[in-house]
Design goal:
The chain has 223 residues and is an all-alpha fold. The chain is 77% helix and 0% strand.
């Protein structure tokens, strides 16, 4: 995963929450919810994300970044998204100034900025010939990977030559696998049968991501 530039998929990140909320809001809109009802679904989605991931500091950071990313994707546009990202950064650093010295925080901020700046435009472009959920599943991870590539290169001392290609191939799997995994976790405590089905489906997506990372890393001069 490190060699192929897919390591960001294995971390709790704002991109995970952005994908989850985008899917929840798309489903809510399909059943007729509008206005403050949609905002309520988003709030419940964030609360569920934090609860399922045990509310650790990295999870709270991801929640803040994910909300900012979602604002940039569709609830206000790029300018509002960047403004909310800036407020999220200021608030998190006021709570914990030592975050400014952590690579994870820097990567999370840069990835969210990439999603805000490019995710919506790329999703609209891809929606012309792909279903919108699939277009988002491709555009969001690729935007995050491209934005973080310079920082990852500086931290690791290497550049993934196959990173962009690997992310393009993996992109359509990331959204469904993320949403199915969260669905499995949500159902597991109350209704094991559907949780098992969702977990089995998510497992196939995760396995395919492992195959992509393994095969990409075997390519000559992959990094």
């Amino acid at each position: 995963f490190r060699v192929t530039g897919l390591a960001h998929l294995a971390a709790v990140s704002g991109a995970n929450l952005t994908l989850l909320l985008a899917s929840l809001l798309w489903l809510a809109a399909r059943i007729g919810l509008q206005g403050w009802w949609l905002r309520g679904v988003a709030v419940l989605g964030v609360a569920g994300f934090v609860a399922l991931c045990h509310g650790e500091p990295s999870v709270l950071r991801a929640a803040a970044m994910g909300c900012a990313g979602l604002a940039g994707l569709g609830l206000g546009g790029r300018q509002k998204g960047l403004r909310q990202l800036s407020w999220a950064v200021v608030a998190l650093l006021l709570v914990d100034p030592w975050l400014s010295a952590t690579a994870g925080f820097a990567l999370s901020v840069v990835a969210t900025a990439g999603i805000i700046c490019w995710g919506r435009h790329w999703t609209e472009a891809l929606s012309g010939w792909l279903p919108r959920p699939l277009a988002e599943a491709v555009a969001i991870p690729v935007a995050a990977q491209l934005a973080t590539a310079p920082l990852v290169a500086g931290l690791s001392g290497q550049v993934s030559v196959v990173g962009i290609f690997a992310n393009l191939v993996a992109g359509p799997l990331v959204g469904p696998t993320t949403v199915l995994g969260f669905g499995c976790a949500a159902f597991a405590a109350v209704w094991p049968a559907p949780a098992a089905v969702l977990g089995w489906l998510a497992g196939w997506g995760a396995q395919a991501l492992c195959w992509i990372a393994h095969l990409g890393a075997l390519l000559p001069s992959a990094a």
